[in-house]
């Protein structure tokens, strides 16, 4: 299975915690960006027709106007063929920039799934995060998607936020569950260098976030959404196929600034600068690269184990890999962090929140 990821590096404003490759106030560059994306896509026309899944992320893909979305869809289809023929195609959207016209346009183009950022149901928390949309915007966008015929909507939630109590988080879960989304992604706040939150000295709250994760797993399960990966919950059959391919060490092509690819056993990523990406395209050059490395030997096998352990079902290890990592697996079993049935190993559900401690064994 081969995935295609397209990065749209534009946002209306920059959220306080965001360290993604996205820039605010550069909407005038969307046209030149689509030209640059066309040029990068053309470099991979040999892969045209071989993709199974598509994920358009960002940034804020829904910031594009209907005309710009039409152009973007044309670029995508030059690589994927008709979107309706893919196993899955996902568009990320932010509530304040997704209206009925765009929802209908995406649906008609064959986009099968939309991922909508909620983060929290309280306007005071959304303002604290610097989010451009409020609760009412999410509700309006969600209803527009349902009216357009979407039966596969994912929502993002965050926990461990500054000023977020357990009661706030619980209220967000209830509010979202009442809308019955098919999929929920849950992320704990991380404060990265270079972000406004880091400059302000906002602290991460790992203990509070861990308690909220546990509460969420129980509540979402009761609401019909099973946890299938550390941060992801879905109704049966609504798991993200594109992301499952990442966790199965499948190959994918990423286009746009900051986008990563895994092709022919090689991991590489474009540099995150939008200006650098545009300048290279204007000069007829490929995008500047951030890194490029061949993944092989023990490092490749260790990565397969770590990615597989992200899934709640875990991974059935091939015999040679099971033998190679037996000492690490034995230590994790003894520490009560994983369970094993033969060569099928998984992290204990009540230890998923400390998955990083498990992964450290394989680094
Ligand atoms: S909307 Fe998403 S990508 Fe854009 S600034 Fe906020 S967190 Fe970052």
Task: Please provide a written account of the structure.
- The chain is an alpha/beta fold.
- It folds into two domains: about 1-245, Alpha-Beta Barrel (TIM Barrel), CATH 3.20.20.70; about 295-360, no CATH class.
- The chain has 14 helices and 17 strands.
- It has helices at about 30-40, 65-80, 100-110, 125-130, 135-145, 165-175, 195-200, 205-220, 240-245, 275-280, 295-310, 320-325, 325-335, 355-360, and strands at about 1-10, 10, 25, 55-60, 90-95, 115-120, 155-160, 185-190, 225-230, 230-235, 250-255, 260-265, 265-270, 290-295, 315, 340, 345.
- The chain has a nine-stranded mixed sheet with strand order 9-10-8-7-6-5-4-1-11, sandwiched between helices.
- Helix 2 links the parallel strand 4 (about 55-60) and strand 5.
- Helix 1 packs across helix 10 (about 275-280).
- The chain is globular and about 55 Å long.
- It starts with a strand and ends with a helix.
- The model has no long low-confidence stretch (mean pLDDT about 95).
- Iron/sulfur cluster binds near residues 15, 18, 20 and 60.
């Amino acid at each position: 299975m081969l995935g295609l990821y397209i990065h749209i590096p534009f946002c209306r404003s920059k959220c306080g915690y965001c360290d993604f490759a996205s820039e605010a106030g550069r909407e005038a560059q969307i046209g030149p960006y689509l030209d640059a994306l066309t040029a990068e896509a053309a470099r991979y026309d040999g892969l045209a027709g071989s993709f199974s899944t598509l994920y358009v992320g960002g940034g804020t893909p829904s910031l594009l106007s209907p005309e710009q979305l039409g152009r973007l869809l044309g670029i995508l289809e030059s690589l994927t063929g008709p979107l309706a023929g893919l196993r899955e195609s996902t568009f990320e959207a932010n509530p304040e920039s997704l209206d009925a016209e765009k929802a209908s346009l995406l649906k008609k183009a064959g986009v099968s799934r939309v991922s909508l950022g909620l983060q929290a149901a309280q306007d005071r928390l959304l303002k604290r995060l610097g989010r451009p949309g409020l609760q009412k915007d999410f509700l309006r966008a969600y209803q527009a998607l349902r009216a357009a015929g979407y039966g596969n909507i994912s929502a993002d939630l965050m926990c461990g936020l500054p000023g977020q109590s357990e009661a706030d988080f619980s209220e967000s879960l209830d509010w979202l569950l009442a809308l019955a989304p098919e999929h929920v992604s849950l992320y704990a706040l991380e404060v990265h260098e270079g972000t406004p939150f880091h400059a302000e000295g906002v602290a991460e709250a790992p203990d509070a976030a861990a308690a909220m994760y546990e509460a969420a797993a129980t509540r979402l399960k009761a609401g019909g959404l099973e946890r299938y990966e550390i941060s992801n919950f879905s109704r049966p059959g609504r798991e993200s196929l594109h992301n499952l391919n990442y966790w199965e060490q499948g190959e994918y092509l990423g286009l746009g600034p900051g986008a990563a690819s895994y092709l022919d056993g090689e991991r590489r990523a474009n540099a995150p600068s939008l200006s650098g990406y545009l300048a290279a395209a204007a000069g007829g050059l490929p995008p500047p690269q951030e890194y490029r490395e061949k993944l092989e030997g023990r490092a490749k096998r260790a990565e397969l184990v770590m990615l597989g352990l992200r899934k709640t079902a875990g991974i059935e290890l091939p015999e040679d890999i099971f033998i190679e990592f037996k000492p690490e697996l034995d230590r994790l079993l003894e520490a009560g962090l994983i369970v094993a049935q033969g060569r099928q190993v998984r992290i204990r559900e009540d230890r998923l929140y400390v998955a990083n401690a498990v992964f450290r064994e394989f680094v």
